[in-house]
Amino acid sequence: xxxxxxxxxxxxxxxxSQPFDDAQRREADALRLQIxxxxxxxxxxxxxxxxxxASEDAMRQTHRRYFENLRQILESGANPQK
Length: 82
Fold this sequence. Notes:
The protein has helices at about 25-40, 55-60, 70-80; strands at about 1-10, 15-20, 45-50. Strands 2-1-3 form a 3-stranded antiparallel sheet, covered by helices on one side. About 10% of the residues are buried. The chain has 3 helices and 3 strands. The protein has one domain. It is an alpha+beta fold.
């Protein structure tokens, strides 16, 4: 799966998240570019990424910074059972 994420750096939160099937790569790329052009035009500090993962759960593990704050990441590192 492919996941498009728009992330507000200053707030530390996801603004938009949209999944795509692997066969929809062109659509995902086109939407990412459209959003980036809009953000650039508006001088926004958001970032837009396309991430690939087997599932949303897998993506949440490999790209935790989009889903957890620093404290949560540090606490789960101290308690790996989480």
